[in-house]
Design goal:
- This protein is of the alpha+beta class.
- The protein has three domains: 2-37 and 186-264 and 469-496, Periplasmic binding protein-like II (D-Maltodextrin-Binding Protein, domain 2, 3-Layer(aba) Sandwich), CATH 3.40.190.10; 64-176, Alpha-Beta Complex (Dipeptide-binding Protein, domain 1); 268-467, Roll (Dipeptide-binding Protein, domain 3), CATH 3.10.105.10.
- The protein has helices at residues 2-27, 51-57, 109-120, 129-133, 157-160, 225-234, 249-254, 283-291, 295-303, 332-341, 358-372, 385-394, 426-436, 441-457; strands at 31-36, 66-68, 74-76, 79-84, 90-95, 135-142, 145-150, 187-193, 197-202, 216-221, 239-241, 258-263, 268-273, 307-309, 348-354, 376-382, 400-405, 462-467, 469-474, 477-478, 495-496.
- Helix 13 runs antiparallel to helix 14 (441-457).
Length: 497
Amino acid sequence: MKRREFAINSVAAASLASLPFAALAQKRKDAVVMGMTLEPPGLDPTAGAASAIAEIVLYNIFETLTKINADGTVSPLLAESWEISPDLKTYTFKLRKGVKFQNGEPFNANAVKFSFERAAAEKSTNKDKRTFASMERVGVVDEHTVVVINKELNPDFLFLMGQATAVIVEPKSADGNATKPVGTGPYKLDSWNKGASVTLAKWPEYRNAAAIKMNKATFRFIGDPAAQVAALLSGDLDVFVRVGAARSLDQFKRDPRFQVIISGSRAKTILAINNKKKPLDDVRVRRAIAAAIDRKAVIDGAVDGFGVPIGSHYVPGAFGYVDTTGVNPFNLDKARALLAEAGVKTPLELSLILPPVPYARQGGEVIAAQLAKIGINAKIQNVEWAQWLSGVYGNKNYDLTIISHVEPFDLGNFAKAGYYWNYESAKFNEIYDKINNAPRAADRAKYLADAQRLLANDAVHAFLFQPQWITVANKNLRGLWKDMPVFLNDVGALYWA
């Protein structure tokens, strides 16, 4: 209620600010101010799991061999072209010539080899380490030709080579990228005001600098949805991608100063369960938790209805999707019976750790109330992002948590030994190997379906919803993504009409 009152009051204030807002937009034809919900812990996407890192640096500071587009297709970036062997395991990349890093060092095949071998190294903290460890060899043919031989077939390889974890780094500067990032992209880090904002400045020596319209891009960190709405209405922001403005959506649609984009995603929002914690190591307990959750109520409470229910770690619209929402349907009586069958005495005390994103905080309240109906006392602990990354993701110190996994092709996480949800299944590993080694699309679709059903039947998590993202922007801003297969802000594509 308070959020609604705040938004209504903001509308009145915004009407007075409309002229300054318009004037401001006219003045900054070469700059853009963007809102973000979370501040990243660092700026090295190869060192941490936070998607907020990629939102600032991917394609802006750092570049990859391939580029992911808004429709999910892949196009050349640092690689001009590539050839794929008949067995689909060997990729020969022809690299773009005349490219240099922002410290003056040349971009070449050796930099690619260094980047991939670094990502695969024993001490690597790259969240996609498995992808790089699966490279049998990274070979340098000449300065502008590199060959990657994979141990197993990976149909999504070119897409993965466009994600933030696959950025090409300069060897001499790589260790300092968290605070002093050095890439080949059109922007350099200008300043980082911790707790408030990051500003990027156009790099004049970029290979195609003339095509880059924005000289500056400032990312402002605003976690509270009401404050996000107010910042847009006042003209402090030009755009907020993935804004928490669902409850204020109508007023933005009615306001001629703004454009509103509703984007699809490949994200999976889950109630993650620590599968090795007792009694959560019992599949009956996990199924009970899943059965206690009314997905529609969670979607309404967490994201104001902007979500699609899912029953496994896969989303509608993705290749090979099957509907598994009926595997663990909402059924309180069944949930109570499963707990009793597992010998669980209620009330059962479990921790529910929530990172500082609105969907988690708001959804957590709904889920805690639902679990209480079957005798589970989910004790909510609100933590900051750094605490979540270290405590939950790093040390696996949790029972339950709510998080959205945004990478499109991340089923491999369930095959990772020691991943934060502690799921181990020889059967899943077998299916996942079949997925990766199926040359025929029909076979791959079958194995993807098998994987989805297994994860649903194992109730690895309570799978919640596929989010739909809202972008609110100045009506004159162009180059925004319509859909979001990955989290990023391609500043180089933005311009003022």
